[in-house]
Amino acid sequence: MKTQIQKIIGLLTISSLLFVSCETVDFGDENLNPNRVSKANTGALITGAMRSIPGLVSNVNPLLLIQHVSEITYNDSSCYETIQWNFDGYYTGPLMDLQTVINLNTEDPASYTSSGSAGMQMGVAHLLQVYYFQKMTDRWGAIPYSESLKGVDNLKPKFDDQKDIYMGLFGQIDTALGLLDGGGLNGDYMFGGSATSWKKFGNTMKMVMALRISDADASTARSKFIEAHNGGVIGAGGDIHYPYTAADANDAPWQDRFQSRDDFASSDTMVEHLIASSDPRLHVYAVPVEQAGGVAGGAAKVVVNYTTVDGKVYGGMPYGVLTPGILQSWVSYLPDSVIRVSAARQGGMLFSYAQVALCYAEAAQKGWSVPGTAQSWYEAGIAASMTQWGVSAADSATYIASVGAASIQTIATEKWKALYMQGEEAWSEWRRLDYPVLVRATDWLTGTGIPVRLGYGAYTASANKANHDAAVAKVSGYSQDSRVWWDTK
Asked: What's the whole-model pTM score?
């Protein structure tokens, strides 16, 4: 940035010399645009970066991969049609906005105090960058990281290995936690400039990331998990969710998806699992069918499996079937609490206490030095999920009494259910833990199983060919069957 400023000053100096021999004229404000912003509004840049979070927390594709929901009519996505996915918009959008906040407050913090203290601006910018980068590397594996966000100074950054990215992100979290000084932050509509809330966000993210790499680097995972615990993560009632509003500019993506079409329903995979385990979350994850149709007129390609529970009929939408010939009224729809998101509970969840408690359960099961037992955390995680979704205390207690002993398999299965509608997290945890056992789409179109990574986009493949090709050479091309670094089994 300083180099760019020096170049501009130099050009201005040369221009002034060219006018030395001319008559001195006072042009006043003739060539100034009074409506032009004279310097970046760093608070607005942070706000803008936050606006991209819904694309992650309410993303459809991972929910299809993890079989939380099914498509009703247009079923290509749940059959894995798309192989190449683009990440370029993250770099040119929120990541670059956040890097600009960091750069400006590093080089000239006094000029940007109207948006809050430099420490808060940079700390939050680092944490949001980590959130984006972690989701991106969990999707694609190797991506540009250490050489990214350099602007014209490096238009073809290398793709860093995922292990190196994770180590870099842990470092960014630690840097951010040290910067958060409580000096206020304008434009922060998530936490209102609260350093305490952002620190819990950072530590919770570190805890989840630590467990994510536990099969690939157990030593680092254990130490980072303990650091996060000691730093303070979210507790009961401290769920972190995106603050959707009723206004169209910031309403839930699911509400927009259902304004004119009914493309999604509760998956038969999820519905039938809940029924088999007598899980009371059935009544809040899915809506009873309007009519048990299934094969009326012979139009349906597959049969809907109907079950009556507490006097209500449920039937999940068969997963991964092309042209199934099923009407929306024949299957269990998504509840209003998903479509028209409650700001305080289900929608737009970044991190829930249920997820954190189940992370503690797994850590205890692994023998890490955390308070409590695997069983106590396991039951606390289930109870938190029930509370999050509005299940009654009595129904919650009855279910918890039936779950039996905690194990990696049972913890993983409960996490899959607790992360309902948190597609990115659920997909990553399922890939790592391998439970519950899911069956690929009936009419799969690509690959050999449920995709475990995304292929790089076509633009990236051509615009940054050498680095793209080097990354692809380490895996099996665009194959969606190639595991990322932390997915070891």
From this structure: 0.90
